[in-house]
Amino acid sequence: GENVEQHPSTLSVQEGDSAVIKCTYSDSASNYFPWYKQELGKGPQLIIDIRSNVGEKKDQRIAVTLNKTAKHFSLHITETQPEDSAVYFCASPANQAGTALIFGKGTTLSVSS
Amino acid sequence: KAGVTQTPRYLIKTRGQQVTLSCSPISGHRSVSWYQQTPGQGLQFLFEYFSETQRNKGNFPGRFSGRQFSNSRSEMNVSTLELGDSALYLCASSRTGRPSGANVLTFGAGSRLTVL
After folding, report:
1. Is the previous residue joined to A34 through a cis bond, with omega within 30 degrees of 0?
2. Alpha carbons A19 and A28: distance in angstroms, whole number
3. Of A10, A94, B8, B18, which is most buried, counting CB atoms within 10 Å of its CB?
């Protein structure tokens, strides 16, 4: 089955710096790669996703890149702000039978001002 | 537009008891899935329901079960609770539930279960 590895587990940056989180997946048939942000006391919230027919997608300060050959995808956050502090999860479909996702273990991002 | 609503938000049970958690999806969403979140194992898929049928199941023992009603609301049940069942249980709904992998999941805030 699908396996998703996420690195690093913790990331500390200064406000205004960039942050990069990387994930690798095992199933070459995977075609959808979402990123979720979870703040304390809340459920994960989708912040950006990418489909396998696209190499990069941007939404203001966040971007995701996908390398299907190497089976990895990355989240890039530029000009980080304290409100970006949260746990970030990458994910990939568990199979093609439904909506189930396999999540990475998460990255705790701390942005200090 | 109301989000995914989960009840109760917090509950405490003792070993051997059972618990039922409820999830109301976003209006119009037909797919509901459940996840268990723990510090050690992270987010793990439990099961998914679509049109009242279980479509997908994760690697959890039979003590974990669920169902979906005709209005898409879902419940999950855990019987004979163990200490290791302490976790945040998250429900997510999807509008299309299309089995192609490209589905946007909207999560609720979760039900935090503590087993003593």
Report:
1. no
2. 26
3. A94
Nearest partner of B109 among B14, B2, B1, judged by Cα: B2
Cβ contacts of B106 on chain A, cutoff 8 Å: 46
- CB contact under 8 Å between A95 and B56, yes or no, is yes
Interface contact B70, partner A, CB < 8 A: no
CA distance A23 to A71: 9
For tokens 């989960």, name the residue: B6
CB pairs under 8 A between A and B: 78
Q: Tens of pLDDT along chain B (116 residues)?
A: 689 999 999 999 999 999 999 999 999 999 999 999 999 999 999 999 999 999 889 999 999 999 999 999 999 999 999 999 999 999 999 987 776 667 789 999 999 999 99
Q: What are phi and psi of B85, to 5 degrees?
A: -85, -5
